[in-house]
Structure formats: structure tokens, C-alpha cells
Design a protein that fits this description.
The protein is α+β, with helices and mostly antiparallel strands. It is built from 2 helices and 11 strands. The strands form 3 sheets. A 5-stranded antiparallel beta sheet has the order 2-3-4-9-7, with no helix packed on it.
Length: 177
């Protein structure tokens, strides 16, 4: 059966070609997706201590620190609290509503959202109706793994504050030093 061996040989080569094409396409798309969605820290990205001016507000990340908890506020056994201190000033001519739940997201270098926590005992509140010129300061807390890397705090585009803001927070392990 020389014809059936030749058919089998061609079928295997055809299948191998399809597998290589699919694998190559997947690799190209994966690289493009990763680079587009999760770029490395760029020089112009704001960091702790910087202020970003959006259309409606000036947003400052003043500080960030790690906590292992206190009193009844305890993170999971394999986590710590990352507490970020912020200031927001309404620079618009109208009242804005600041909602920490709706406005700010913390994502790691793989794009995963970190778990936002409401913890008694952290300073200030960022939940406010803000008149023009009003400034509020407070802290936000997230429960994070001690080995999470590439954290970025961003203002959600669908928030009541128009404009974009993204702060490079960095790797959790850097806060232990």
C-alpha cells in the first residue's frame, strides 16, 4: 500500500504545518497583547509623591506602606495590607462626587485587580461630595500578596472625575525594606 503511506505522510505534514501556524500566531498575539495591556513602567508615569492634574481634579499619591494588621483588622494569613495615602483637590467649577469604590483600581503587573479593603482605623476618607476648590485626603487599603509585582493605581475612566491618572506603586517587597 504505497499510496496510503504517502497519504499518511502528507496528512502528518499538513497537520504539523497547521500546528506550527497556530502556535506562531498565538505567540505573536500573546506578545502583542501582553505589551499593549501591561507596558513596563514608563518614565512619564507618576510615582509616589507626584500629582496628576486631570480635567476635574489634582490627584496626589503621598505615601504607601505595608501593614500586617492591627486589632480586628487582619489580612488573610498569606497577605498584607497595602495602604496608600492620597490627596484629591477639586479643580473644576462644579461639585464632584468622589467614590473610592468607583474611582480607584489597583492592578498588578499581570493586570489582576487587587482586593480593596475597608479597614477601621485608617486615616481620613476619600468618600466625599467635593465643592469647587475643596481638597480631601485619606488612605485606601488593599489586601495583597507579599510577592505581588508591578502595582499600578489608576483612576477609572468611567468615574465622575474626567481625565486619566495612573500611578506606579511598584513591587510589594520593596515596601519591606
Amino acid at each position: 500500500m504505497p499510496g496510503s503511506n504517502q497519504f499518511l505522510h502528507r496528512a502528518i505534514l499538513g497537520l504539523l504545518a497547521i500546528v506550527l501556524i497556530v502556535a506562531g500566531t498565538y505567540a505573536l498575539l500573546s506578545d502583542a497583547h501582553t505589551e499593549a495591556e501591561i507596558p513596563a513602567q514608563e518614565e512619564e508615569m507618576a510615582t509616589i509623591g507626584d500629582t496628576i492634574e486631570t480635567n476635574d481634579a489634582d490627584i496626589t499619591v503621598s505615601d504607601a506602606r505595608i501593614s500586617h494588621g492591627w486589632g480586628m483588622a487582619q489580612p488573610s494569613s498569606d497577605a498584607v495590607f497595602l495602604i496608600i495615602e492620597m490627596k484629591v483637590r477639586n479643580t473644576s467649577s462644579e461639585q464632584i462626587t468622589l467614590s473610592i469604590v468607583d474611582h480607584f483600581r489597583l492592578r498588578d503587573g499581570d493586570g489582576r485587580r487587587q482586593l480593596r479593603k475597608v479597614i477601621p482605623g485608617i486615616e481620613g476618607t476619600l468618600e466625599n461630595e467635593m465643592a469647587p476648590g475643596m481638597q480631601v485626603s485619606g488612605e485606601l487599603a488593599w489586601e495583597v500578596s507579599p510577592d505581588v509585582e508591578g502595582l499600578r493605581l489608576s483612576l477609572q475612566e468611567d468615574s465622575m472625575i474626567s481625565g486619566q491618572a495612573e500611578f506606579w506603586i511598584g513591587d510589594v517587597e520593596d515596601f519591606f525594606e
